[in-house]
Amino acid sequence: MAGRLRHALIVSADDLGYCAQRTDGILRAIQQGVATSSTLLVTGADAPRAARLVSGFTRPDGIRISLGLHLNLTEGRPCTVASDAEPYQMPPPCLVDEQRMFRGKGSIVAMVADPTLWSSSTQQWIERELGAQVAAFVALVGSPPSHIDGHNHIHVFPGFVEVVARAAAAHGITKIRIPQPCQPVSSGNAFLEQVASHAAKARDVYSRHGFSSPEWLLGLDVQDTSPTCNTFASRVAKACAASTVPTSDASAPRPSLNGATILEWMAHPGIPCTDNTTTAGCGQGPDDFAQSPDRQAELDMLVDPRLPDLLQAAGVTLCSFHDLS
Question: How many other CB atoms sit within 10 Å of the CB of residue 113?
Fold first, then answer.
């Protein structure tokens, strides 16, 4: 099958709007590198500026950039504004602290471990918060999100899956990231291992709600390892070789682009954030992840001029979530 397109790759840059340095890095990865997609963190300090800038961006190769919603239920202040006079709208204490800030990804693990935390009011509040973030996205960007994924992958954890699937579908969103790697996560990160373990079941739930997603997610276990161009090319090649339908339903439709299997690479490019104030992050200042030199390493990887030729040699073309059927 020489010359036939075998695989297509979405290269996603997460956390657009988190801070000016992350935004600038992501936009550079789109214009000068291989990034074809991003997700906007509407609660991020730089979200208004990021939305203005990305709306005028195009890739030199003409690929239509996809811009999705990075659903945030773990960091900073919620979008939903509640007052003490409206207690039914108050965020659930299992998700927010006394300052009405999200408790972090540890709250996800706690809620999964304790089903009693999943009251109907908690589920309703998450649905309202998702709706508020979609509305904020539309207000900033001027159009609905092309797809959705979750900050800290919250959208694939038990309990959250059904709520997010139902609420996102109600807002007309039908494309989603499933963080299911083609090989076991080997980073030693217990949280990421949990993410990968929940992904397959989450895929089946989202499929039942009419969502489509790329076949595999790459980059899950390299985001803290200063990855290079060679890392990228090697992981893509392994994923191409391992491509099968990663769902318990073998008859499920397979997302493709002109017959090519669609994969996704998740990246977090940027310039390390040195602004230690609330003008970065989601209301609490930048976290260690945003300040890590690995953000620059991921940016350097995505703009490496060797990457396009390496992908072409592997029979891989770039695409975006707009190409997901």
Answer: 9
CA 52, 172, 174, 73 dihedral sign is positive
- How far from chain centre, in Å, is Cα 307? 22
From first to last of its 325 residues, what are the pLDDT tens digits of the chain? 344 457 899 999 999 999 999 999 999 999 999 999 999 999 999 999 999 999 878 888 999 999 999 999 999 999 986 544 455 567 888 899 988 899 998 888 888 888 888 888 899 999 999 999 999 999 999 999 999 999 999 999 999 999 999 999 999 999 999 999 987 776 678 888 899 999 999 999 999 999 999 999 998 877 656 778 888 888 888 888 877 544 444 444 445 556 678 999 999 999 998 776 667 888 888 888 888 999 999 999 999 999 999 998 888 999 999 999 7
Cα–Cα nearest to 161, from 128, 192, 123, 191: 123
- The CA distance from 17 to 51, in Å, is 8
Asked whether the beta carbons of 127 and 159 are under 8 A apart, the reply is no
The residues annotated as belonging to the active site are: 14
Maximum distance among all alpha carbons in the chain?
A: 67
187, 221 Cβ separation under 8 angstroms: yes
Unique residue bearing structure tokens 């975006």: 320
Closest residue by Cα to residue 21 from 50, 41, 48, 42? 50
What is the β-pairing status of strands 148-150 and 217-218? unpaired
DSSP tag of 212: B
Asked if residues 26 and 16 have their Cβ atoms less than 8 Å apart, the reply is yes
CA atoms within 13 A on the CB side of 75: 27
Distance CA 140, CA 119 (A): 32
Whole-prediction pTM: 0.91
For 260, the 3-state DSSP assignment is strand
